[in-house]
């Protein structure tokens, strides 16, 4: 009854964990949820009021497939002023979230059977989305001693005549690592020289701390022409439920993305788009304050994790995750099919703490914990992780 496409994908493990946490909470069980990849801030007031005003003024009819002109102009200005990239309005397509933007982009450029390079660890939806559009995910092993940042030597042996695209997450989910400008230049020039399109997922770009952020498409005109930049408002403006993202690409790709989106969803909710416009032009201070709070939580989380014997972590320069190395406990779970799954299941059962197993990101020796929560909840959660590890 089901299509091969539907039968070939794996449900999102992170969504599954959140569902399980919700069920446990409904049963009255106290759960500390360090798994969800969502800011715990509310949408900034000025963004909400912009949406309310749009409703009051009946801005609720069909609009352009590519998105509101005012929003695309604000995105164009933002990319020019903050990222040093010049895009015309026709090169920007607003979508129903960054996940939708990624799907649009892959549908626009990837043919059935063509290969997409996905460095490990990866965000859980990358390989499944590639499979949905008929592409072939090719997983690239990276070195934890290099903070899992992919290099040309990692790619060299995997590039083939069927390689079409590489997905780069920067700042990274799940590691929080950020590529330096020099690292990016070497990497993307390698790709461009081989005709490999770069899908630059920059959804966490505003959430960076001690390291500067460089947008891939800003490196050169040649690189820009081969890059599809994906961004949105879920993380930077705490607008996860509003579902607004966008792509910026060359005109040929943007036109294809627009055609695809026109048939699938027409355009994102106009009201959500007005909220995004409000966030972009009125809420810089709110976003800066949120990043400042995340940095203090990052520092707190690191100080607490440093007190746990036997674990390591990837230095989190951005996003709001700590990717914790639990490989030293393999012997304790040697009879389990998955170290990270069994670790997380027992942690949830015994201590009531939910984190995400590294196998969801293709790296079983790690777990991901999210520090987008209160200092109190973060402290309690990591203290319970420490207690659990000490009991092993």
Automatic annotation (TrEMBL):
Pfam families assigned to the protein according to its UniProt record, in alphabetical order: Aminotran_1_2 (PF00155)
GO BP annotations listed: amino acid metabolic process
Root EC class: transferase
Domain Aminotransferase class I/classII large: 30-385
Keywords of the record: Aminotransferase, Pyridoxal phosphate, Transferase
Gene3D superfamilies for the chain: Aspartate Aminotransferase, domain 1, Type I PLP-dependent aspartate aminotransferase-like (Major domain)
Entry-linked InterPro entries: Aminotransferase_I/II_large (IPR004839), AspAT/PAT-like (IPR050596), NHTrfase_class1_PyrdxlP-BS (IPR004838), PyrdxlP-dep_Trfase (IPR015424), PyrdxlP-dep_Trfase_major (IPR015421), PyrdxlP-dep_Trfase_small (IPR015422)
Record SUPFAM superfamilies: PLP-dependent transferases
E.C. numbers: 2.6.1.-
Cofactor(s) of this protein: pyridoxal 5'-phosphate
GO MF annotation, one: transaminase activity
Source taxon at top rank: Bacteria
Membership in a protein family: Belongs to the class-I pyridoxal-phosphate-dependent aminotransferase family.
PANTHER family in alphabetical order: ASPARTATE AMINOTRANSFERASE
Protein name (database record): Aminotransferase
Organism in which the protein naturally occurs: Peptoclostridium litorale DSM 5388
């Amino acid at each position: 009854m089901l299509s091969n496409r539907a039968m070939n994908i794996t449900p999102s493990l992170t969504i599954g964990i959140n569902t399980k946490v919700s069920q446990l909470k409904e049963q009255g069980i106290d759960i500390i949820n360090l798994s969800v990849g969502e800011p715990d801030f509310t949408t900034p007031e000025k963004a909400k009021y912009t949406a309310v005003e749009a409703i009051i003024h009946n801005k609720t009819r069909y609009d352009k497939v590519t998105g509101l002109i005012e929003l695309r102009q604000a995105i164009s200005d933002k990319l020019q002023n903050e990222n040093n990239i010049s895009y015309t309005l026709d090169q920007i397509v607003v979508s129903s979230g960054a996940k939708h933007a990624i799907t649009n982009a892959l549908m626009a450029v990837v043919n059935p059977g063509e290969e997409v390079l996905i460095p490990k660890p990866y965000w859980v939806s990358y390989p499944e989305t590639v499979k949905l559009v008929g592409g072939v995910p090719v997983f690239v092993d990276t070195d934890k001693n290099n903070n899992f940042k992919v290099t040309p030597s990692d790619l060299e042996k995997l590039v083939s005549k069927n390689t079409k695209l590489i997905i780069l997450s920067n700042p990274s989910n799940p590691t929080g690592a950020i590529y330096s400008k020099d690292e990016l230049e070497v990497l993307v020039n390698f790709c461009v020289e081989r005709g490999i399109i770069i899908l630059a997922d920059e959804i966490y770009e505003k959430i960076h701390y001690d390291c500067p952020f460089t947008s891939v498409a800003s490196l050169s005109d040649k690189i820009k022409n081969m890059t599809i930049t994906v961004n949105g408002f879920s993380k930077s403006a705490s607008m996860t439920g509003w579902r607004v993202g966008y792509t910026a690409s060359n005109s040929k790709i943007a036109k294809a993305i627009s055609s695809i989106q026109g048939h699938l969803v027409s355009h994102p909710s106009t009201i959500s788009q007005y909220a995004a416009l409000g966030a972009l032009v009125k809420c810089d201070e709110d976003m800066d304050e949120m990043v400042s709070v995340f940095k203090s939580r990052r520092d707190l989380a690191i100080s607490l994790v440093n007190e746990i014997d036997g674990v390591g972590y990837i230095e989190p320069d951005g996003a709001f995750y700590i990717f914790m190395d639990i490989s030293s406990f393999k012997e304790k779970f040697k009879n389990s099919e998955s170290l990270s799954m069994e670790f997380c299941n027992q942690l949830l059962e015994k201590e009531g703490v939910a984190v995400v197993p590294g196998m969801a990101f293709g790296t079983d020796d790690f777990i991901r914990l999210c520090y987008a929560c209160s200092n109190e909840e973060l402290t309690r959660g990591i203290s319970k992780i420490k207690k659990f590890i000490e009991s092993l």
